[in-house]
Specification:
1 helix; two-stranded antiparallel ribbon; single chain; 13 strands; globular; 11-stranded antiparallel sheet; mainly beta
Length: 241
């Protein structure tokens, strides 16, 4: 299985259908072997330039665009996670809040019942590396860490033990918010310990994975991830009407 990289506003659950792979969280995408990062003067966390200090920086697009390269300020996605893998239903919202030079800032909010954890993460666009993490509490930004970000995202993931075979493929209809989309649903047989389960992925006509589900032989849902809201931002200099 190739290395899994993070991307915004996507749900490529089909990556889990290749070999002995897990179900990635909604920002995970299998894009093949990583290209070695070019050397940069940028350092992580407090050594990096704050994005507000370089508002006029020329936009930098990597030679080999990363999964963050085409993300715009205002891009927003909301995923819902249900099933027995978690004690409660989870809602994950991702929104691009700033972009300048080689930096992009994304707010990640994980809702668990009445509790919400919000992290503001600065990524390097070219390498997708996490450079800075702050926890948002009201109007305050408190120091946090890449480990805290990884822990938050891990709460939305589930890892089956093996992936045995594709077993079915059919046309279907997907619902994202109140919008109906033509989709293709693919089913795979996976293993969770000694238990056989079915992993289903629904992909829209434009290639987005909009839903994924793992259920056992009795039909009980172990893990379900759904894209329930998606909004595109606007290019710099384009005002909304």
């Amino acid at each position: 299985m190739n290395k899994i990289h993070m991307a915004l506003c996507t749900l490529p659950l089909v990556a889990a259908a290749c070999g002995n792979a897990g179900i990635p969280h909604p920002t995970a995408l299998d894009i093949g072997e990583p290209t070695p990062a070019k050397k940069t003067a940028m350092r992580a966390d407090d050594d990096m330039p704050f994005i507000e200090e370089i508002p006029s920086a020329e936009e930098i697009v990597p030679a080999s665009p990363s999964l963050l390269a085409n993300k715009l300020v205002g891009d927003r996605s909301v995923h819902r996670f249900t099933g027995s893998f978690s004690k409660s239903n989870l809602i994950l919202t991702q929104e691009v809040t700033a972009r300048a030079g080689s930096l992009i800032v994304v707010d990640y909010t994980l809702e668990d019942g009445d509790t919400a954890t919000k992290l503001r993460v600065t990524h390097d666009i070219g390498t997708e590396r996490v450079l800075r993490v702050r926890e948002l509490r009201g109007k305050r930004e408190l120091p946090s860490s890449a480990a805290a970000f990884e822990k938050l995202m891990a709460r939305t993931s589930f890892v089956p033990d093996d992936n045995e075979a594709q077993i079915a493929k059919a046309k279907a209809t997907c619902l994202v918010g109140d919008q109906q989309l033509d989709c293709e649903k693919t089913d795979y047989r996976v293993k969770i310990g000694e238990q056989t389960a079915t992993f289903s992925v629904s992909r829209s006509a434009d290639g987005r994975e909009v839903a994924g589900e793992i259920s056992d032989g009795s039909g009980k849902v172990i893990y379900k991830a759904e894209l329930i809201e998606s909004r595109a931002g606007l290019p710099a200099g384009v005002a909304s009407r």
